[in-house]
Amino acid sequence: MPIEEQRNFSYKFYLFGLFLLAVSLPWSKFLMSNAQIILLVTWLADKNLLSKIKNFFQNKTALIVSSVFIMHLIGLLYTNDFNYASEDIRKKIPLLMLPLLFSTSPSLSKKNIEYILMLFVLSVTLASFVCFYVLLGYTNKAILQHRDASIFISHIRFSLLISLAFFILGYFIIQKTSAYYLKGLLILIMFWLLFFMLSMEMITGIACTGIIATILLFYFTLQLKNTYIKTSLILLLLVGIYLPFNYIQNTLSPEKKIILQQIPEVTQSGNRYSNDSLRYETENGYKVWIGVCEAELKKEWNKRSKISYDSLDLKKNDIKYTLIRFLTSKGLFKDSSTVSDLSDKEIAAIEKGIANINYMKMFNPRARIKQIAWEINKYMHKGNPSGHSVIQRFEYWKASLGIIKENIMFGVGTGDVEIAFANEYEKTNSPLTKEWRLRSHNQFMAIAVAFGLIGLLWFLFSLVYPILKEKKLFNYFYMIFFMIALLSFLTEDTLETQAGVTFFAFFNSFFLFCDRKTDHTEV
């Protein structure tokens, strides 16, 4: 095969690997891995391999980006648990490999970059259709929480992909598409992705999309020269910012409460109610522990359900507590008559751990807001945070800070993170049950736990340096990706899972090294 044809074949194979990796992100860890293997084999097969390696070591940006992986290797020097360390190193390989491959391979044409981005958007959209089908209950998979419908990768990592796809679509609508029917189609896809995130209760993705959209709108509004239009749009944006906060405030405003005098002393069967008006719990404004007759609840519930009253629901919470909360949310007394009046659908919902009538609705942002408020209220009253996604993070962060304080300079090493958290939870007598004693759920804290203050400072440097060195501060695609990643780092340890680290390593390297001509993406 002539050299020119060989190079052409190699380049096409390289492109295939890029296409496959972009498409696989919302679907399959297996495909992600195989796409990277294809890219690596193509890179190794090049006759100019030594020249590529030399170029890599001369590229300061590539070296600094990939140094995060080297930091994990250095952390092996003071590690005891090499089983955990080897698994962690395996997951972090894209942090080294993708900067190496992309920075030493030919830059892509504008057309190929756009093909890859649109294939990514198409793949994310198709994956959202499948997950929504699962959410609607058309499969045999048990959906206890909305997140369970994200059957391919974590719903949080998926939400980051959706947020990025949303803004890629925005670019194509404004910059690339001239035909009205194509613009209309892309706009419909954008609205679908927003609706899907809301339906799936993807808080991280919704927050990222909302914050970044607000920043972009302010930025572009400030570029306008007409003072009247600029002022009007800024006022509209301020109103747009106020409305969600007003919605949340109205959602959390006090509701009517049953007072003690409204409840009869005995049930219809003549059994006495117990009334504890001092306990703080409420559902939809009704006091949980007023009007309760547990003897009747237990007898009637055991008639209606195969799960015993003294057992756990499918979310591993006491089912009697779930039942009492559910009846309270409907404004009912807690006795045999109210249990017997429950529909089969409501019984099934309680068995799944749904503790409020409003949580049964598929698309109900107000219910999710109230649920978060309920979790925080429970935590403030010393309730057990186990199994509650928001308030668990407070315990994770508290444990992280405790570990960092004792290992301030160099951290605990690459492999001893899990051991350090287990010891910290035991030492502080954390209320979290063992199955929920997880890691930081904050990437900056996760780095500081493993590598201390020195590691955290270097990690921050590795994030900021490429933006300045490669002049990406006003590059639309890179900064959208960067803001999504940065926001996710605040509430998630994004780089601690294969899907998360591949998302970060791929797009960070792709926008830095594959697109070396940035004029078409400047904002």
TL;DR?
The protein has 523 residues and is an all-alpha fold. Helices cover 65% and strands 2% of the residues. The chain is globular, with a radius of gyration of 27 Å.
Task: Give an overview of the whole structure.
The protein has 20 helices and four strands. Helices cover about 65% and strands about 0% of the residues. The relative contact order is 0.11. Residues about 1-5 have low confidence and may be disordered. By secondary structure, it is mainly alpha-helical. The strands form two sheets. Strands 1-4 form a two-stranded antiparallel ribbon. Strands 2-3 form a two-stranded antiparallel sheet.
Task: Summarize this structure as a short list of keywords or feature phrases.
523 residues; mainly alpha; two-stranded antiparallel sheet; 20 helices; 65% helix; 2% strand
Count the helices. How many? Answer: 20
- Give the biggest beta sheet: 2 strands, antiparallel
Query: How many E strands?
Result: 4
Q: What is the 3D form?
A: globular
Could you report the average pLDDT, rounded to the nearest whole number? 89
How far apart, in Å, are the first and last alpha carbons?
A: 44 Å
Low-confidence stretches: 1-6
- Structural class call reads mainly alpha
Outline the fold blueprint.
Layout: H1 3-24, H2 29-44, H3 49-58, H4 60-74, H5 82-103, H6 110-135, H7 155-176, H8 180-199, H9 203-222, H10 227-251, E1 274-275, E2 282-283, E3 286-287, E4 290-292, H11 294-304, H12 319-329, H13 336-340, H14 344-351, H15 365-380, H16 389-406, H17 417-427, H18 443-469, H19 476-491, H20 498-514
Antiparallel strand pairs: 1-4, 2-3
Helix pairs in contact: 1-2, 1-6, 2-5, 4-5, 4-18, 5-20, 6-7, 7-8, 7-9, 7-19, 9-10, 9-19, 16-17, 16-18, 19-20
